[in-house]
Amino acid sequence: MGSGRLARGRAGSWEPGHALLAVPLALIVLVTVVDILAPPEVHLGPFLAAAPAITASFAGPRTTGFVGAVAVLAQPVVAIVRTSLTDLNHSFQLTALILISVFVTFFAHLREQHEKQLTQLRSVARAAQEVVLRPLPPRIGPLRVGCVYLAAEAEAQIGGDLFAAARTARGTRIIIGDVRGKGLEAVGDAALVLGAFRATAHQETDLPTLVTYLEGTVTSDLDDPAAAGSGRADHSEGFITAAVLDVPDDAPALHLVNCGHPPPLLLRDGQVTSLDVSHPAPPLGLTQFVDSSFAAETFAFEPGDTVLLYTDGVIEARDASGAFYPLSDRVTAWSGAGPADLLRRLRDDLLAHTPEGCLGDDAAMVAITRMPRG
Q1: Angle subtended at Cα 298 by Cα 373 and Cα 281, rounded to the nearest 5 degrees
Q2: pLDDT, tens digit, 9 for 90 and up, residues 29-39
Q3: Cα separation, 291 vs 367, whole angstroms
């Protein structure tokens, strides 16, 4: 995943080729020749300023400065051939061309510096997210697992979608969540929750106690005085939706605490069932505003069943007409596929659903299949 992103980054930082550079140079030659051959009352010298301006749109300051220098040298050639180098009209044209070339070269320098800073920010942000969001192993106890993460390519913005798994003595615990907001702040909040989950999920505590601990971690971070300078207007702006599952090894069931997250989908015999809890909890970080306790609800999860966890970036993806992605309908068609194959098909179909394969928000999916006892 990291190498693919690095390759894209390198491809985006190309230098202008000879074909593109030929355009402003050809323009200089054309304007120079036509200006020399034009009647005395026609002056085409001002058009030479277009050459460095065009170059600045695709090249760096060095190339822009070079083209500007060629344009400046072309102006005296025209002046000498037509009249003289000291002609007042040509002198003003030459002065204006020098000033314009200097300005566009300077702006090309500023744009290059901005692009470098943006590239560095993207690199740091993506590296931070890759460290936080570790891929899940394909096999965890009696479960086959698949995961996929799709970043919304919007400048340097990255999101706070998260998932993780932990083994206990009796089963497997899995979390999927979505931090409100984007950027490094969202990655920091995701790292906070994932760290708390990884540190506690393997312990022999019940699921509501685990979620209570996660809630306490998020709330204590929001109450930290240092968070006042993080840019949030108030505590209610920071929260995390999450679904936390406990899948025992020796029972055909799963236990679920849903904290404001989209409900998981159960795939069984070509049918898709939404695992809606009867008493959903508020998102992590908002229990101080809502009087609610965490309660786990149990659903059947038999050998051969698959559970699909996802973030709202999947179901809120829109096509060109504004229609949302029909996740349940798509999953039904591929309900017999294994976790990795299911997610591969969903990923390709989701990108095909959106215009030019661009998502409006980050999207994460985790598929879990219980293996038959053997």
Answers
A1: 140
A2: 999 998 888 88
A3: 32
Distance CA 98, CA 105 (A): 11
Instruction: Identify the bridge partners of residue 298 per DSSP, sorted by sequence position.
Output: 255
pLDDT value at 5 more than 50: no
Q: How far is CA 242 from CA 66, 72, 164, 246, 363, in A?
A: 56, 63, 11, 13, 14
226-256 residue pLDDT tens = 554 555 444 445 789 999 999 999 999 999 9
Which residue, 22, 66, 25, 27, is CA-closest to 47?
Answer: 27
What torsion do the CA atoms of 154, 160, 163, 166 make, to the nearest 10 degrees?
Answer: 140
**Cα dist. 170→97, 141, 366 in Å?**
78, 10, 21
Mean pLDDT of the region 322-342: 89
Question: What are the tokens at 172?
Answer: 């497997």
At residue 339's C-alpha, the angle toward residues 330 and 123, to 5°, is 95
pLDDT band at 335; cut points 50, 70, 90: confident
CA dihedral sign of residues 48, 53, 57, 63? positive
The whole model's pTM is what? 0.69
